């Protein structure tokens, strides 16, 4: 039995999983899990990247204590768009910003003064959004240009952490495609675009293919942890690319959903889809672990519930998942609905109040009980995924017959069942730890233990449980969708409050 370390770092928590492979089946063991939240300081949101790095080493230490003394390799996947800047001496410059920092709010307008949204989308395939790397760099250039003046290289978050372990600077393909700086036609950094926006053209570290073996862990780390030298692999660096790699999809008429803080829904395509409709509807094109493209929409996910729980907890109202489920079952179906992707819900100071205010402004009944709030969120999320599915079919001229969901969010049975109900599609859910498994798959392929992604997905299907959800109550959900569509078309914005 051979083992690899898969570091799967999300925007709310991080974990180290040991993936073991005997040539036929995979086995997964969680070794270490830790919280990961942006730190608010001096009016900005930062990632505590040094603590993340220390927690990763803590996990490696625990792994050794658990008997995993011989590990073939490690790889790191994270959320997209964020990065760290290195000086010419290779030292980290400043604290990396979180994509939720408001300093990028005006960047889209500044970029549009030099390059239209249509041209930007046509070149990069990425839907313009304030969170994108390009907007963060424009904001830094406007507000704190000294950072860029002193920076020699930019490394995206998984590659920054890989650099800490190896001293090697490189940006992996899948994570690079999230930046809105990667030219989908030239298949490299768009230097002309960076020049137009006064971003140093040599700032971005070179792009390497998914599965590139970067090199061994540094001697200093080997001594600190008491480990043998371990190969560090630039596996699929974006967690969604990892999740898609792990889903045992067998048909090109299957949509995927990566479910967590965000929920990303899409379909794999050979070439980027950069039509006017794709831009209008907010779709984006990002890389897959096998070098193709995932056409997807980044939609709000369980962030809404996480933020409500945070408010309730501060108020001393801590309830279990079972209590939440009981409360939902005793609440009224479709009492109120929201467009979960409305900007009002991106990062409000109080999510509970924001939900109530949205319902008031849209002339609906306001949620009262915890069950009302949770049901409103889950029903609205599921209805939005039907909207996304319909748009995917229009963009690809393809009938989508099945939805495959993966990630931690599928542990919420209601989310899976409601998605089946809202879309009138069969839903297959699993595996739960899709990102970690996809991370490991990239490593096993790079190490030559698994031939390719097709073989890897067959191994995943034989190694981890899947659950099937069939659509229910179609008439009720159709009526709710007609109400929901009116909210989406109304495009309520909370900008005047």
UniProtKB/TrEMBL annotation:
Membrane as UniProt keyword: no
Family: Belongs to the FGGY kinase family.
This enzyme's EC code(s): 2.7.1.5
Protein's organism: Cytobacillus eiseniae
Name of the protein in question: Rhamnulokinase
Protein origin, superkingdom: Bacteria
Domain Carbohydrate kinase FGGY C-terminal, first and last residues per copy: 256-446
CDD domains: ASKHA_NBD_FGGY_RhaB-like
Pfam families listed in its UniProt record: FGGY_C, FGGY_N
Keyword Lyase assigned: no
GO molecular function, one term: rhamnulokinase activity
SUPFAM superfamilies, per database record: Actin-like ATPase domain
Keyword field: ATP-binding, Disulfide bond, Kinase, Nucleotide-binding, Rhamnose metabolism, Transferase
Residue span, Carbohydrate kinase FGGY N-terminal domain: 6-244
